[in-house]
Amino acid sequence: MREVITTVDAPGSIGPFSQAIRGNGFVFVSGQVALDPATQKVIEGDVSAQTERTLENVAAILRAAGSGLEKVVRAGVYLRNMSDFPTMNAVYARYFPSAPPARTTIEVSRLPLDVLVEVDVVALA
Is the CA virtual torsion 25, 31, 34, 37 positive or negative? Predict the structure, then answer.
């Protein structure tokens, strides 16, 4: 079974995709960026602030799916500048303090809305 997950506690989609899909025991969360769910606007701040907002959005979607950050098995992190890796990593570590998920971090030339970081995850449902 395939179920679309939506919540007002995270930003709405800015394109033809769902916030997440739950299926076959997993939750697949689409790439999230540093949008404030209340305003649908990119928050002010550096990569630290944007990483925190992004992971809060991921956490809200996982909660709506009946899952949580502790159930994440894989994460993808996309950075506009790999020089931001240590700062992003410090924030990320606060959200995954023990038994962190498998992860890939990639530098990209541009992200939606010109944000500094984007994160997608796969979690157990």
Answer: negative
